[in-house]
Automatic annotation (TrEMBL):
Coiled coil residues, start to end: none
Residue positions, PTM 4-aspartylphosphate: D46
GO biological process: phosphorelay signal transduction system; regulation of DNA-templated transcription
Keywords: DNA-binding, Phosphoprotein
GO MF term set: DNA binding
Lineage, uppermost ranks: Bacteria, Bacillati, Actinomycetota, Actinomycetes, Kitasatosporales
Origin: domain of life: Bacteria
Name of protein: DNA-binding NarL/FixJ family response regulator
The keyword Phosphoprotein is assigned to this record: yes
Location of the Response regulatory domain: 1-115
Record SMART domains: HTH_LUXR
Amino acid sequence: MAVVDDDTVIREGLPYLLPELRVVLAVSSVEELLAARPAADVVLLDLVLTGTGRTGVRQGAAAVEAVAAAGYRVLIYTNERRREVLVGCMAAGARGVVHKAEPLPALAGAVAEVAADRVVITQALVGLAELAERRGGLPSLTDRQREVLSARARGEAFRSIAERLFIGKKTAEEHMSVVTAKFADFLRDHSPADLERELGLGPGDLLDPRRPR
């Protein structure tokens, strides 16, 4: 894994906090990453990289696009919660989003998922995925995948879903993995403006992490 973050504590602290993750490079800018071209399964990327006062560095969706174009799987590691920003980054090629407020095991799990070429999305985006499904944006889902998506959008844990649907927990997780991959493909074909039109969202809905539900 490579880390791109302008926070020194995160860059230098993650190898000690998560020793099971092998960090091959930790830098403060996308430009440094692309110059070094490390062999890494995942790039853990912060979205705001000007905390040190530097200007002219790529960040946000532009950074995601540059890193993904270089052949890396991008996992966004951020405090950003606005849907408009997150869906724009997913459309630019990110394979996942994990918030810095999440516990460290969640981060380690997200890295493993993205390294295995699966997609990881936050709860706010799960709700958006459910809305996309209801509006016909994910027509190829099976009935069981829709059931799991609906349950996850309500915040139900995989173990509870599995017990209620009489399936294994791993099976429930695999159903959701298929859903998130299809949702990521959907986002790559839709700008935030496209989403507003196609999903019937009002102005500001994508900016508010609490909407739509």
